[in-house]
Amino acid sequence: MANQQPSPAPCAPALSRPYPMANPGYGKRSMPDRPEPSAHDFALLPERERYVAGFVDHLPDGAAMDVKSLAKQLPLYGQQAVGSALRALSVAGHLRRVRCLVGEGDQVRWVFRTFWSRTARDNEWWASHLVAEDREAAPDDTTPPPPPWGPVEEPAPVAAPPAAPAVPQQRATEPAPVPPSGAPSPAYLALAQLGRVDPRLALSAADCAVLEARAAEWLARGVSTEYLTRALVAGLPPQVGSPVGLVRRRLDDKIPPRVAPAVAPPAPGGPVHHTMLECTKCGVPGRPEALPDGLCRPCHRPGPPEPMALPAGGLAESDVRARAGHVRELLRSR
Asked: What angle do CA 281, 285, 290 make, to 5 degrees?
């Protein structure tokens, strides 16, 4: 039997009109060291991904890379299919969504680019390339030290300063205590304080540990612990039978939306990142180690749906099947 060979990428559709270009600084950006295009490019990808990859590869740098613009030019697939194909290409290592900080002083803004590589790259390659991009984007305002071989001037004689008055020795300031590594997180502490704010929401240590991840997701979206507490205690019923169940429900139902982070001035002495990755699916920004394959953790590995338990007093599966068979027999006898 003949060996099955992977088929080449389908031909990109002919453009009847010029493809829309993004605003300056946005859109597609091809990676350097690209090989020459060949008929075997993207041959190992599924048919839909090969089709979209072949079209994106022929686009010039600066072309619009949003799903709506791509779907208008691809007659075979709609916006949902194009978005799924872009996520698959991100996992395959061909593209990354990136935010770049441009501007000077107070006039700074984020621009969105799509880094494209004809050759599939792994996460380590993309991470190292992002570090290089970050270094190139950072302004070089460091002043080199003077050379050690410069002329040395003789210091001028300086009169001896007057003797300082004697003062009693001051006690050294004690350093601030360092919290232990196992200190509870702010999300855990916010949950533990609910019972003190309203006794109806008193949670145990085990309850706080179970709900800690859900509360941390609120804080990750930019809200404070005070906002979290007010949202959980507002409008409580007169009697709360299960505090942990009510808090879990409110953490899931009232979670605030994700918003684009505002460009804030960097902290003094802290590192300034001019380039950040972005989740190809939901758009949340993050460092390369937090976005494997260009996707955040929830989008990369969505959790399995929780099994639904039968209500108290409900019928077992065997009883349901027996009753259904009895009903069918009755219908046949009529």
From this structure: 90
